[in-house]
Amino acid sequence: METFTIGLGCWGARLLGRNPLVRNVDRMESVMLAILATLCLLALPIAASMGTFVHDSRARAYVEDAQSKHQVTAVAIEDGHGSISGRKVAFTARATWRFGGREHDGVIAWPTRPDKGAQQGMWVNSEGVSVRAPRPQARAVGEAVLVGLSAWVAMAAAAASLVYVVHRKFDRVRSAAWDRELRLIREKGNWGNR
Length: 194
Hints:
The protein is of the alpha+beta class and 194 residues long.
């Protein structure tokens, strides 16, 4: 049979224990660690609410963007041209498309080199001008997760940095106290009582 006990662990022993080797600085460090761990836990719902706010605002913007754009079919009126930009090859061709009862034309991008008469779907705004495709609403979820996670990681990193700085300071205080006590022992020459 195994027993299971819930204990306070190292922090609880430092905070509540009566060990004479545990100094006040150890107790202060444990209190600080407990407070910062609690703050990191409390930061989770704050980060989640930030993510929710970002999701709602981005999803609304993406819906409005999608409602203002319309998909039409473009027909190439000339053979396409290719241009090299870095490692990418971009193809363009002059094309026509119908929207709002009017014929529109312009140079648009194509995924491959088009021949005259080639067709492809494209997006236009309410004036019939070529625009980028609307962003998918699923992108709002990724952006919300990124913002929420970044906010929480920033809080946790700040807490970890504070823990590191304070721990280093308390280590110097502990070392100075030990040096002081060892010096007293050496001066008294009484090693047996310590």
